[in-house]
C-alpha cells in the first residue's frame, strides 16, 4: 500500500500527488491511492475532481472504508458493504496497476471466497444494493455471475428459493426465468411471497406481479391451491388489476379441478373479516363461459365442490354473517339446481350454520338462512332428518313434512305403476302362449280338413271312373269283347291307410 501524503503538498512531475479533500454527502475526506484522482491531479483538472463521485451512489460509511484503506488502516469487509466498496474501488481505479495489493483486488477476492460461495451471503449482498450499484454491477458483468451462483445452488436445493423476496425485482425476474428453464417448480420459486416481513410488502407486490406475468396459462399447469393462494395474496398486497385478473382467469379454466379447501383459502383469516362474494361469482361466470353443456361432468364437480365449501365455511371460525352465508348459498343453489338431483349438501350447511349460531339468531334470521334450502330437492334420508331437526324454523319443518309426504305418494305411485306394468307383461305373455297353442291346434284342424277333402275328391273321381268303366264294359260285352277272364284292375274299393299327424306342443 502507498504511504499517506501531507495535505497541500505541491504537485511536481516526478513526485507523488498530494491528498485531495473531497466531500461525500457533506462529509469531508482526504483521498489518495486512486489512479483516477492521480491522473486528474496531474492533468490539473480540478473542476472534474469536484464531481468525481457524482456517478456513483456511495454512503459516507462506505467511503470512509475506502479512505481508511488509503491511509493504511485495516478495514472490515462484509456481505452488506462488499458491492458498494467494490464498485467505488472500481470507479476510482484502485487497482494493482496503480498500487500493489490495492482495494479492488481485495474486494474481488472477498467476493469470490466469502460471498459467492454461500447462498445466504449472496442474497444478503444483493438485497442492500441501490439501483446505481446494480447499474454498475451490470456494467462490469457481475449480474450474470450472481445469477449463475444462485441458480447453481437452487438447482441442488429448491427450498433455498424461499429467501428471494428481499432481492431487487430486476434480479428476481430473470432468476425465475432461468430457473423455470431448468424445470424448477414455479411454486418453489414464489413460495417466499406468501411469508416474510410485512415491511417488504411493496417489493413483494412487485415480485408477485412479475410472477403472474411469467406463469403459464395452460389448464392444470399449476395447482388450484397455489392459484387461490396467489389470488388472495394479490388482494392483500393490493396488486394491479391485471395481476389479480390473471390469477382469476387461470382459476376459472380449472375450477372443476379445485377442492373445497382451495376456496377456503379466500375466507378471512379471522372472524369479522370482509369477504368479497362477487369474487366467487366472477370466477364462476368465467368458468361457465369456458365450457358448454357437453361438459356436464365438470359442472357436477363444481356443484359438489361448492356444496362442500358452503358446509365448511359455515362450520369454520370465519364467523360468516347471515347475509354472507345466504349469498354463498344462493351461488351454490344456482350451480347445482339443474345439475344435482338432491341438494343434501346445502341442507347440511344450513344445519351446521344454525348450530354454530344457535344462541345468537332470531327466528327471522333463521328463516333468512333457510331461504337457500329447497325442500323439494331433499333426499328421503335428508327429509327424515329435517323433520326431526329442532334447529329449523317451524315453517321449514312443515314444508319438509309436506314434501316428504309427496315423496312417499310419488314412490307408491311409481311402485303401483311398476306392478301394473308387470301384470300387463304377464297377461301379454299368457295371451301369447294361448295364441301359440291355438295356432298349433288350428293348424292341426286345417290339416284334418284338407285330408278329408282330399279323400272326398278321390272318392268322387273313383265313382266317375267306376261308372265310365261299367259303361265301357257294357259296350265291350255288347261287342263280344268281354270274357270271364277279364280282370277288373280297379282298386278303388280298397280303403286307403289313414294318415297320422303328430301334434307338438
Automatic annotation (TrEMBL):
Keywords: Ubl conjugation pathway
Residues annotated as domain NPH3: 134-407
InterPro entries: NPH3/RPT2-like, NPH3_dom, SKP1/BTB/POZ_sf
Pfam family, one: NPH3
Record SUPFAM superfamilies: POZ domain (SSF54695)
Pathways involved: Protein modification; protein ubiquitination
This protein's record includes keyword Transport: no
Domain of life where this protein originates: Eukaryota
Family that this chain belongs to: Belongs to the NPH3 family.
Name recorded for this polypeptide: NPH3 domain-containing protein
Organism: Brassica carinata (Ethiopian mustard)
Amino acid at each position: 500500500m502507498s504511504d499517506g501524503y501531507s495535505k497541500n503538498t505541491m504537485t511536481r512531475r516526478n513526485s507523488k500527488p498530494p491528498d485531495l479533500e473531497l466531500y461525500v454527502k457533506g462529509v469531508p475526506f482526504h483521498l489518495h491511492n486512486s489512479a483516477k484522482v492521480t491522473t486528474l491531479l496531474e492533468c490539473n483538472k480540478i473542476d472534474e475532481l469536484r464531481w468525481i463521485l457524482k456517478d456513483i451512489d456511495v454512503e459516507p460509511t462506505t467511503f470512509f472504508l475506502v479512505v481508511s484503506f488509503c491511509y493504511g488502516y485495516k478495514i472490515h469487509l462484509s456481505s452488506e458493504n462488499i458491492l458498494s466498496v467494490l464498485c467505488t474501488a472500481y470507479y476510482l481505479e484502485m487497482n494493482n496497476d496503480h498500487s500493489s495489493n490495492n482495494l479492488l483486488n481485495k474486494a474481488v477476492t472477498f467476493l469470490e471466497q466469502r460471498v459467492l460461495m454461500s447462498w445466504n451471503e449472496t442474497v444478503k449482498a444483493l438485497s442492500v444494493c441501490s439501483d446505481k450499484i446494480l447499474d454498475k454491477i451490470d456494467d462490469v458483468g457481475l449480474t450474470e455471475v450472481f445469477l449463475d451462483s444462485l441458480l447453481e445452488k437452487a438447482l441442488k436445493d429448491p427450498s433455498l428459493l424461499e429467501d428471494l423476496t428481499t432481492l431487487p425485482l430486476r434480479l428476481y425476474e430473470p432468476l425465475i426465468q432461468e430457473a423455470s428453464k431448468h424445470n424448477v417448480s414455479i411454486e418453489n420459486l414464489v413460495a417466499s411471497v406468501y411469508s416474510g416481513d410485512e415491511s417488504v410488502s411493496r417489493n413483494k407486490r412487485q415480485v408477485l406481479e412479475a410472477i403472474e406475468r411469467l406463469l403459464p396459462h395452460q389448464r392444470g399447469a399449476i395447482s388450484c391451491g397455489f392459484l387461490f393462494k396467489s389470488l388472495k395474496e394479490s388482494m392483500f398486497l393490493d396488486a394491479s388489476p391485471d395481476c389479480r385478473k390473471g390469477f382469476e382467469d387461470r382459476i376459472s379454466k380449472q375450477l372443476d379441478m379445485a377442492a373445497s379447501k382451495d376456496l377456503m383459502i379466500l375466507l378471512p383469516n379471522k372472524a369479522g373479516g370482509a369477504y368479497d362474494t362477487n369474487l366467487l361469482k366472477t370466477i364462476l361466470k368465467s368458468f361457465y363461459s369456458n365450457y358448454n353443456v357437453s361438459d356436464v361432468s365438470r359442472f357436477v364437480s363444481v356443484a359438489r365442490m361448492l356444496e362442500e365449501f358452503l358446509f365448511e365455511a359455515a362450520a369454520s371460525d370465519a364467523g360468516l354473517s347471515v347475509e354472507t352465508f345466504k349469498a354463498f348459498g344462493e351461488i351454490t343453489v344456482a350451480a347445482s339446481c339443474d345439475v344435482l338431483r338432491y341438494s343434501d349438501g346445502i341442507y347440511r350447511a344450513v344445519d351446521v350454520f344454525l348450530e354454530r349460531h344457535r344462541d345468537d339468531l332470531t327466528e327471522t334470521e333463521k328463516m333468512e338462512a333457510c331461504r337457500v334450502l329447497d325442500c323439494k330437492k331433499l333426499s328421503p334420508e335428508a327429509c327424515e332428518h329435517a323433520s326431526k331437526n329442532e334447529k329449523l324454523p317451524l315453517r321449514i319443518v312443515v314444508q319438509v313434512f309436506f314434501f316428504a309426504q309427496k315423496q312417499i305418494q310419488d314412490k307408491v305411485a311409481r311402485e303401483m305403476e311398476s306392478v301394473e306394468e308387470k301384470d300387463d307383461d304377464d297377461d301379454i305373455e299368457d295371451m301369447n302362449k294361448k295364441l301359440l297353442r291355438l295356432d298349433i291346434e288350428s293348424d292341426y284342424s286345417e290339416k284334418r280338413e284338407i285330408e278329408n277333402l282330399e279323400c272326398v275328391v278321390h272318392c268322387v273321381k273313383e265313382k266317375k271312373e267306376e261308372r265310365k268303366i261299367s259303361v265301357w264294359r257294357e259296350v265291350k260285352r255288347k261287342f263280344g269283347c268281354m270274357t270271364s277272364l277279364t280282370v277288373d284292375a280297379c282298386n278303388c274299393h280298397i280303403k286307403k291307410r289313414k294318415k297320422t299327424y303328430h301334434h307338438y306342443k
